[in-house]
Specification:
alpha/beta; Serine Threonine Protein Phosphatase 5, Tetratricopeptide repeat; 5 domains; 5-stranded parallel β-sheet; 4-stranded parallel β-sheet
Length: 691
């Protein structure tokens, strides 16, 4: 039901307009007699009162009318003074005093032309005070005095408002329809719009009761359409189809014909739904087949585990190959719905937008596996269960700022789409968390030498007139403790023969193990002293692959940029990063959607089961699709989930599903909400920091 202001604002406006437009009441003055001086004076004072009201000087305006009533009790213009006083009280929300003035007018000036308006305003004052039952009672009484169709129509109209506000919707419809039948043609459209608003609040018993009253008359078309919606919401598909069939037969030109046809199409699709059939769209061939087949293993494991449980309805999985093509993905959605009757869809990964658009059109819930921004805004049947850049950045920034106390951060990013998006997101989120971005530099995506970018970040690239004084900060002390590494991690990594080797990919001049020596008879040449770097940040965010980071990280200490925390994205989460960069990435913070070395029992059980079946450990893709499939399998086995619409609602209402990628919920837009993993590089491995 709409709010009081929506239903009744029109009446308030009308009432106040009456105050402005209401000329002095007609006074029976003989044509040949000139107006008395008292009347002329009263008219002048009333004009002043009108001006005061326009200025919202209500108290001064009322004082003039009350003074007139005191000086001329039951005299000329007394009824006008009472009406205007009552309306000003309404504007001041003094409804008790307003009713008193309107009732005085009715009692003291029973022959006044303002009496009918006064009776109507008594009803309105009760309503505005929230006394809806009193308003209805007063309206019934006022109907006994109403002499014209117009007077009766507006009273019934106001009764409809009052019944609606009192949640008596069936009586509201009946009152509105009497007002509709009494009203002038130009007024009926407005009244019918109120009827349609109330019909949307009706339930099955009230709808059927009103259909017995109005049968094939207005508003029975709207009543039938609402009844069909009610049946559909309860998954009573055949009764809903029957009601719509009557609607089409009786009202072939109805204004809601298009809405009814769309609902019929949706219901017919519902008849084809196999509630225990789930669709799956993945790129199983083409350029992305490696990722698609990895994702499929997670779904297959979830299916096998679910179907082997006792007392569950067996799930049928229908798999379609998108081939990494948007058109194929859209056709796959159509086939899954129209041919296979699935109740929900998992995927796709790469071609998510075209599939989501088609799923929304066919009203089938689809759980996309994509980072594409705003994918869930395509419609209320579109969901996402996948690690996004925004989730990663929020987790990293929150931990860095609030747990580590580092509030001055730099960004070093590649000039390509992912790097630019990451930089902008990180900057925005940092500001929201009270951090300051003190330096931002970029490098080319194909670059392998990052000297210039690092020098610009710390003030070594451009000449400086003088060196700033070195300062020690509390932030540095925090970092020393945080970046501390176990003793064995500080040692060089052995090669396959057990020999100590220098950093892979580093020239000897950058290796921390190399020492430069000079011939004993030749002292080293005196070099010009280089300026010290200005390291005014405690952390640096680098949104790039682990291969690039393994080349960038060693160059920081080479340029004397020490005790700075490295922050990354899930692209860093590879053991190869530690093998390649060794001590240069110690303490780095990395977010991810899954961590197979987590101490969580559910994660360890999943990892063991996956390795037992497929012979290899699972990664993020396998874990994510395992969770997405498990969610749909469990929801579809709920007794109340018998349609795609109920499946959609079940996903929206899901809270804290205990998945291996974290406790999963979905927000009001259909996007996933979960606490992701935060990892720290410690020694030769990643360790879990959060959750």
């Amino acid at each position: 039901m709409q709010s009081k202001n929506t239903f009744f604002g029109a009446f308030i406006v009308v009432g106040l307009l009456c105050l402005l437009a209401c000329a002095p009441a007609p006074v029976a003055i003989k044509e040949k007699l000139p107006p008395s001086p008292e009347l002329i004076q009263a008219l002048e004072r009333f004009k002043t009162a009108e001006d005061l009201f326009q200025q919202q000087a209500y108290s001064e305006a009322i004082a003039i009318y009350q003074d007139h009533l005191r000086r001329f009790p039951r005299g000329p213009l007394g009824d006008t003074a009472l009406m205007k006083t009552g309306l000003i009280c309404m504007a001041m929300k003094d409804y008790l005093q307003a009713r008193h003035m309107f009732k005085r007018l009715v009692h003291e000036y029973p022959k006044s032309s303002l009496v009918e308006d006064a009776r109507f305003n008594v009803i309105l004052a009760y309503y505005e005070q929230g006394s809806y039952s009193a308003a209805i009672k007063s309206a019934i009484s006022a109907l006994g005095f109403a002499a014209t169709r117009y007077q009766k129509s507006r009273i019934y109209d106001l009764m409809g408002y009052s019944y609606s506000a009192n949640n008596e919707f069936e009586d509201a419809i009946k009152s509105y329809m009497i007002a509709y039948e009494l009203a002038e043609p130009q007024k009926r459209t407005e009244i019918l719009s109120k009827v349609k608003e109330v019909i949307a609040c009706l339930k099955e018993p009230e709808l059927n009761s009103l259909l017995e009253v109005y049968k094939h008359r207005v508003p029975s078309g709207h009543l039938r359409l609402q009844l069909a919606k009610e049946y559909a919401s309860e998954d009573r598909i055949q009764p809903a189809i029957d009601v719509l069939s009557d609607f089409f037969s009786l009202f072939p030109q109805h204004e809601e014909l298009e809405t009814a046809m769309a609902l019929m199409d949706e219901l017919k699709l519902g008849l084809l739904t196999n509630r225990f059939s789930i669709g799956c769209i993945l790129p199983l061939s083409g350029p992305y087949e490696k990722f698609g087949n990895r994702a499929l293993t997670g779904i297959e494991l979830a299916l096998n585990q679910f179907n082997t449980q006792p007392d569950v309805n067996q799930i049928q999985l229908v798999i379609k190959d998108s081939k990494g093509d948007p058109n194929e993905a859209a056709r796959a959605v159509e086939s899954l719905v129209l041919d296979d009757g699935v109740i929900g869809i998992i995927g796709p990964m790469i071609t998510s937008e075209s599939a989501a658009v088609q799923a929304q059109a066919l009203k089938v819930p689809i759980m996309t596996l994509t980072q594409k921004p705003d994918i869930t805004k395509l419609g209320d049947y579109v969901f996402r269960d996948f690690l996004t850049l925004s989730q990663q950045v929020k987790a990293v920034v929150s931990y860095t700022v609030h747990e580590l106390g580092i509030k001055r951060i730099a960004i070093l990013y590649p000039e390509e789409r992912y790097g630019i998006a990451s930089m902008n997101t990180f900057w925005d989120v940092s500001i929201l968390h009270g951090a300051e971005i003190v330096g931002v530099e970029s490098y080319g995506p194909d670059q392998t030498d990052f000297a210039d970018a690092i020098k610009k970040l710390v003030g070594l690239y451009y000449p400086r007139p003088e060196e700033p004084e070195e300062e020690s900060t509390e932030q540095t002390e925090i970092l020393f403790e945080f970046l501390a590494v176990e003793e064995e991690a500080e040692a060089p990594f052995p090669d396959t023969q057990g020999n100590q080797t220098s950093q892979p990919g580093l020239p000897p001049s950058l290796s921390p193990l190399d020492e430069t020596s000079f011939p004993e008879d030749q002292p080293p040449e005196q070099e010009q002293e280089e300026p010290a770097p200005i390291v005014d940040f405690g952390a640096v965010f680098i949104p790039d692959t682990f291969e690039k980071v393994s080349m960038i990280a060693p160059q920081f200490p080479y340029y004397d940029v020490a005790n700075v925390l490295l922050l990354g994205t899930n692209l860093w989460h590879s053991d190869k990063l530690i093998q390649m960069a060794r001590s240069y990435v110690q303490g780095a913070v990395v977010p991810d959607g899954f961590f197979r070395n987590s101490p969580s029992p559910s994660v360890q059980n999943f990892v063991k089961s996956f390795k037992d079946v497929f012979g290899i450990p699972p990664g993020y893709l396998e874990a994510q699709t395992y969770d997405a499939a498990s969610i749909l399998f469990q929801l579809v086995n709920k007794p109340e989930v018998r349609s795609r619409r109920k499946m959609k609602l079940a996903i929206m209402e899901l809270k804290d599903f205990p998945g291996v990628t974290g406790r999963t919920s979905f927000d009001e837009t259909g996007d996933v909400s979960k606490q992701i993993y935060l990892l720290k590089i410690k020694g030769g491995r990643f360790v879990q920091v959060e959750p």
